[in-house]
Amino acid sequence: MDSNTIVNGLLQWLGLVILFTFHEFGHAWMAMKCGDNTARDEGRVSLNPLVHIDPIGSVLLPLIMFLMPGGGMIGWAKPVPVNPNNLNNPRRDDVLVTLAGPWMNLVIAVALVGLARIGITFGGEQMANYCFSIAGLSLLLFFFNLLPVPPLDGSQLVRIAVRMDYATFAELSRYGFMALFILMNVRHVWDMLYFLTARSLNLIAGLFGLGI
User: Fold this and answer.
1) What DSSP assignment string belongs to 8-62?
2) What domain count does the chain have?
């Protein structure tokens, strides 16, 4: 593995950590706005990556995936604590808090493509390429987090939809990482995620008059 590959990998990982930070900040901020200060009291309404990084999901797993054939990179951060009893409107706010993280990834992707547009306009091709790369990674995280497998946000949406109690969900979540590991080794899942990511990135780029 040459030095350029290593540097590019580190830049991708740095972008991933930033995306994780905004994702978890979105959950924490929305929970606070909906009446639950649990995350705020634990210092999670913050853009400091150190309060959100998970040693396995934010460091070890991305590193392992980078070293594997294909060089992909994905993972997760520390879940934001939420006390549903503190939410102003528990059922509605539960959905808002759950979606806040993925939607933050979508917003960041749009903002990065906008920065890429500016970079291209002023001759910053290298900056534009990096922005496109991280925008694609942000969209991949958006779709990845909507998979209905714990600890991902999609599983929380399923819990809300079927009105599952928290004790049952917590029991099922004990096996979530095992199910997630199996799912991540299913090629068709990755094909779907990459397809949705590529189509979405093309759509957003088109809004800025760009083609990929």
Assistant:
1) HHHHHHHHHHHHHHHHHHHHHHHHHHTT--HHHHTT-SS--GGGT--IIIIIIHH
2) 1
